[in-house]
Amino acid sequence: MKKKKSADQLTSFIFEHKEDFYRLAYSYVKNSEDALDIVQESIQKAIVAKDFVKNPLSIKSWFYKIVVNTSLDYLRKSKKITLVNDETLDFFSSGTEDVYQNIDLKRSLEELPLKYRTVIILRYFEDLKIEDIASILSEKVSTVKTRLYKALELLRIKMQ
């Protein structure tokens, strides 16, 4: 009975947040078909590994980690690293929409190394907590904080 309950929790969680996962995958690959493939592959991986989730409260960071790792695997295989543009992100965003487009910010963000871009995306576009980001990226909280600080500093320099 417990396994059915965990499977039901996983299914409902994925269904409720499918747009977020798609947006996250799209932010890496900038292609709707590839993003859908990444989400589908992530769901398959999650279903296979659902019995390894020890704490049902950690499903969110666990699944985000799967999506991030699947996206990075895809990028390694295809050798292309891109970031979503603001219009597309606004279109798929379930949050509030900006009424302006900051082209300089978009360019500066695209120029950041992947490890800094990932932290920015997860923190500010996906609105995840530092602890969740650390879990997703399998890094220490202090490492994530350092990367976030460095990424913001690099963005500030590029924007000037």
Topology summary:
Layout: H1 2-16, H2 18-29, H3 32-49, H4 59-78, H5 86-92, H6 103-111, H7 114-125, H8 130-137, H9 141-159
Summarize the structure.
This protein is an all-alpha fold and 160 residues long. The protein is built from 9 helices and no strands.
**CATH homologous superfamily title:** Winged helix-like DNA-binding domain superfamily/Winged helix DNA-binding domain
Low-confidence stretches: 96-100
Top-tier CATH class = Mainly Alpha
Binned, the helix content reads over 70%
**Biggest β-sheet, characterized?**
none
Secondary structure: number of strands: 0
Q: In DSSP terms, counting alpha (H) and pi (I) runs of 4 or more, how many helices? A: 9
CATH fold naming? Arc Repressor Mutant, subunit A
Q: Which band does the percent of strand residues land in? A: under 5%
State Rg: 16 Å
How many domains comprise the coordinates? 1
Domain RNA polymerase sigma-70 region: 16-80
Protein name: Sigma-70 family RNA polymerase sigma factor
Keywords: Sigma factor, Transcription, Transcription regulation
Domain RNA polymerase sigma factor 70 region 4 type: 105-155
Structure write-up:
With 160 residues, the protein is mainly alpha-helical. It has one domain: Winged helix-like DNA-binding domain superfamily/Winged helix DNA-binding domain (Arc Repressor Mutant, subunit A, Orthogonal Bundle). It contains nine helices and no strands. The radius of gyration is 16 Å and the shape is globular. Belongs to the sigma-70 factor family. ECF subfamily. Residues 16-80 form the RNA polymerase sigma-70 region domain. This is Sigma-70 family RNA polymerase sigma factor. InterPro entries: RNA_pol_sigma-70-like, RNA_pol_sigma-70_dom, RNA_pol_sigma70_r2, RNA_pol_sigma70_r4_t2, RNA_pol_sigma_r2, RNA_pol_sigma_r3/r4-like, WH-like_DNA-bd_sf.
